[in-house]
Amino acid sequence: MNAVMECILKRRSIRNFKAQMPKKEDIDQIIEAGLYAPSGHGAQSTIILAVTNKELRDRISKDNYRVVGREVNTDPFYGAPVILIVLADRSSSNRAYDGSVVMENMMLAATSLGLGSIWINRAREEFETEEYRQLLKDLGIEGEWEGVGHCAVGYIEGEVPQAAPRKPGRVYYVE
Description:
By secondary structure, the protein is an alpha+beta fold. The protein has a single domain, classed as NADH Oxidase (3-Layer(aba) Sandwich). Strands 1-2-4-3 form a 4-stranded antiparallel β-sheet. Helix 1 packs across helix 4. The longest helix is centred in the middle third of the chain and has 18 residues. It starts with a helix and ends in a 21-residue tail after the last strand.
């Protein structure tokens, strides 16, 4: 089996991470994989906000539940020390698709490097708030951005979950 297929079949959503920060070179490789994702019309209309600052990471964790009206009682990022937030240009008609491919590329890259990852939603709701629009402005990021997802990344704590059986009857050949 080739390495790409091996990563695809091996990748799992990880829900328990070590606090240890991954190597910067590994984070950079994961981000690079995201930047090389295909995009509609080759527009490259996504950006990645790489959050390794613990204070900001913890703030985003708390706000992730609050934006949908839930009580903060757990970490939605499962202790992952790195949060890679994918945002897409709001004017792009392909924004959700382009951002999704960026997310998948990054999760596969994390797997290839021996790291775990999980896609966490609610980025759209977070970045609709004035607080998060201001965060982007404070970082010098201009334009109108829509959150696509959070790619939580880190070293896996414990065992990697087994794959769920694939449902049958999901492929139809038209020959």
